[in-house]
Write a structure and sequence with these properties.
The protein has about 230 residues and is mostly beta strands. It has a single domain (about 10-225), classed as Immunoglobulin-like. It contains 2 helices and 12 strands. The chain has helices at about 30-35, 45; strands at about 10-15, 35-40, 55-60, 65-75, 95-100, 110-115, 120-125, 145-150, 160-170, 185-195, 200-205, 220-225. Strands 1, 2, 3, 4, 5, 6, 7, 8, 9, 10, 11 and 12 form a 12-stranded mixed sheet that branches. A hairpin with a 6-residue loop joins strand 10 and strand 11 (about 200-205). The longest helix has 5 residues, at about 30-35. It starts with 9 loop residues before the first strand and ends with a strand. Mean pLDDT is about 90; it is low at about 1-10.
């Protein structure tokens, strides 16, 4: 089970009361009261005086059964060319990637949600498994939904943003053997493409030293807020 913790760099999950509908619509009262965390370029890009072209933010909530992530990304050219789940979506268009790792253990999750509402789950025994087929899980425990304000995979329309919600079951937040209580670290990141896939912008929170999302020692600490 996730345990409340306190640290200098932290991300607060608000306590959810009642049932949350996973439909990509972020107008529920829960999300109105949750803390907003804005994505950023990595520190090396900021040091070069570069600025984020398209903003995005996320919020986190929890209850006894699940962890919930809500994201909203400004996007003038929404693209998602993969046509199903369990794919490397960062190769095919816009995607939000959520990383969850026990602070004191080497294994961690990587979850994807796309503007088309597709999902992918990777579970790494350690960082050395990045890029290996064994990490891709056909049985993906999360539930996702997304909404697009604009067109999708089109150069003709005017796109504005896309939003998504992700439900992560508490049962997934246990050890490889299915047991264990952990303090958790978290990273929320984004691949933002144009329609041609020729331009991309990587952003994240917490701010990493480089635009490499598997820098697991730089993730933020997840705090569980009480009512």
């Amino acid at each position: 089970m996730i345990k409340p913790i306190h640290a200098q760099t932290s991300i607060l999950a608000v306590n959810a009361v009642g049932k949350i509908k996973i439909n990509g619509d972020l107008s529920e009262n829960l999300w109105l009261k949750a803390n907003t965390y804005s994505l950023s370029l990595s520190q090396d890009k900021l040091n070069e005086k570069k600025s984020l072209k398209e903003n995005g933010w996320f919020k986190v909530a929890w209850d006894d059964d699940n962890l919930y992530i809500a994201i909203k990304f400004i996007d003038s050219g929404i693209v998602a060319q993969a046509n199903g789940n369990n794919q490397h979506h960062h190769r095919y268009g816009d995607v939000a990637e959520i990383f969850l790792k026990p602070k004191s253990s080497p294994w961690y999750w990587e979850f994807h949600v796309t503007p088309r509402g597709h999902k992918t789950c990777f579970n790494f025994a350690n960082r050395s498994q990045v890029g290996q087929p064994v990490a891709l899980k056909n049985k993906c425990p999360i539930k996702v939904a997304a909404l697009v304000d604009g067109t999708l995979n089109s150069t003709q329309g005017q796109d504005r943003h896309w939003s998504a919600e992700m439900l992560i079951p508490r049962t997934a937040l246990t050890g490889i053997a299915g047991t264990g209580n952990y303090e958790w670290t978290i990273l929320v990141s984004r691949y933002n493409y144009d329609e041609s896939l020729q331009w991309q912008e990587l952003s994240m929170f917490p701010i990493l030293s480089k635009s490499e999302f598997h820098r697991i020692n730089e993730y933020g600490l997840l705090q569980l807020g009480l009512e």
